[in-house]
Fold:
Amino acid sequence: MDFSLGEELEAVRDLAREIFTDRATPERLREVETSPARVDERLWGDLAAAGLLGAVLPARDGGAGLGLAGLCVLLEEQGRRVAPVPLWPALTGVLAVAAYGTGAQRAQLLKGLADGSGRLTLALEEFGHADPLLPGTTATADGPRWRLSGVKAVVPAPAGARHVLVTAATGCGPGLFLVASDATGVTWEYADTTSHDLSAHLALDETPAEAVGTPGGGAVEDLVRNAFVALAAVQVGVADGALRYAADHLRERCQFGRPLATFQAVQHQLADCYIDIEAMRVTLWQAVDASAEPSDAESADRAALVAKWWATEGGLNTVHRVQHVHGGIGVDIDYPVHRHFLWGKQISTTLGGAGADLARLGALLTGGAVTS
Structure:
């Protein structure tokens, strides 16, 4: 199987790498981390102006049609620099609206998302249950619209989001719903995260909403699968960026008159990191490839879960090892590598940890149900 990038994806990668390298400096990251919203709006505008936000959109909606593959290339570059912009929730949501939204919904949302003037976020997680495909939030039909009630946990990057895509249970199965962030019955409770991002718990009380696609028609399953793959892509970049910091540090720092990089025990640690990252990258692109075959949803689900498990397990192992080989410098919050550790830790628990991933994968392989 050939996972090499084509010319269009290479162009996205190179442009994204240039922008993130120039803009996401340690000084700028420190500035954004202490801001109220924790989002680098200037960088978000630069990505929009470069056409990178719109690149994932279908051609019919004015995009380059790069879809999930283009998103993963962009996310890997973001993760490498731990750049504080809400790419994975906003653009994973874009893919869902582009695939399942009505003409009116696409016209209302996608242009603003592509040019950076508006964005949305995702409400997929809840308290007390690890499976985003089994939401406890309920949706009740109200004429052509719906009303939602329930609580969604740890909604990423709520600041600046005009709309939220919410998963909720209906009599026909899980449905995906579009909610204005300031709609009637919406209450936000802001919460810090491990990675210094700002999240929020979202309470809904008979909140008016529009369905995106037909409830039970596959929109939620596709969105969750794409979210798994997107998180895996960010984690590949986070782990790779951390490893590069470790390699530079060990090459420059000496002990007993020799660079630390020449010590066999340290080499073994970095070799394990390299193997984990390569496994993460291979399973990521296998999942992207499988997702391009809509007729085989089970294979796509299986590949996405494998990629997410590797990102959760391998990514967390990598940032732990990198922190360890840095010694005392690794716990110094003035040294940039600590951000990779925090991001790796946060991603490893988003939408469930490694145990939840294995439970889902086991249920998929055996035809059983995931238990909380």
Q: What stands out?
A: The chain has a mean pLDDT of 92. The CA atoms of residues 95 and 178 lie 14 Å apart. The chain has eleven helices and nine strands.
